[in-house]
Model the fold of this input.
Amino acid sequence: MRVLYFSDTFLPKTDGVAVSIKNFSELLALRGHEFLICAPKYGDGDFERMTDQIQVVRFRCGYLPSYPDIKVVLPSPGKIKKIIEDFKPDLIHIHTPGLLGLYAINAAERFGIPTIGTYHTLMAEQEMYVSFYRLFKLDKLFFKVNKFKKKLNIDELDKIVKFDNFNIRKKIILKICNDIYNRCDLVISPSHLIKEQLIEYGITKPITVVSNGMDLKRFKGKPKKLVGDAPKFLHVGRISYEKNCDVVINAFHLIKEKFPNATLTIIGEGPAIPSLERQAEHLGILSSIEFLGFIPNAVLHDVYPKYDIFLTASTMETQGLVVLEAIACGLPAVGVDAFALPELIKHGQNGFIAKSFDHRGIADCAIALAKDPDLYAKFSKQSIQIASGHAMEKCVDLMEDVYSKVVEAMRGKLKKTSVFDMLFDLVN
Done:
């Protein structure tokens, strides 16, 4: 089978979407399938092949002023047309609802190619990147003002963010995403909880759950024990505003009151790091927090076991690959009751779930876990057990089956022709 991937994010930029694309394409290629991945051009670190059966084609792009890591791929209809004519895909798989996703669905309809879309990211939860708050970096202004006016506190910044949330921007982004995914023949959700959310969002096409999976041969943890009075907390992921790492730092500030020797390590890179460092300095806990920056996924399996408890306050996880990696390595976790997290962090089994944005609740959960070595040991065993249900080979089997069934069911799919297509043909 020849499969054409479209994604607005990919290696060398490392995130959950890129890791998922890499894992599935490599393992499916070993089974004889062929892939061509359409992705943004980043510059340094770009490559054109992963293996003999996985080719990568890069597209020119710009970026969002509020978040340079998000690439905006420029229109290239002629290039996509040539790729399809040369590669002759049996299936198109869309991994993001950005401009490349839109170009992909237009091309799929025009050429009558069966199409699948994976809902990796809840884009409506990232509307802050087009808000005036983020565009003008008001978080920086807040901390500058706070140096001179001691009455201001971090809660005031949270109020600005909350006031600036769920509004017309979010609704517009949600409609754009729905329009793309509802034009696919099948939608893939990484978790059952997100499937329910997508139905609520208005996705009307059939939805199949396929976990992003985990290489349990590499992320293979052993039951851990908690020793001493200096618990080591860990947060891993893209350090961007929607991940709510500021809530984790506020929670850690309260944890430090009970465990003065506790430490927090933050792994990842992203635009929120400078403001998080200022926040930690303002709270007087910067010396207990280590920002390690980016660490390649290839070595992360050796990193997780060095820590005791995983913390996350993200409210937009469709699965949470780093959470899955952490629990596979035996770490109990504390997260929030949002989207897919309760599917991996099962309250009272391998960790605790607090309310979204509730840094006090997160702190209380983390403190309760760190105070009870017996409970910690029990949760560690359960983390490994829960992760075992996401073995990569099982997920690849399911994905391969989905591909075959969609291609067979949509064989002879009708092409759609628009006035734009006719004009396109005239000029090409």
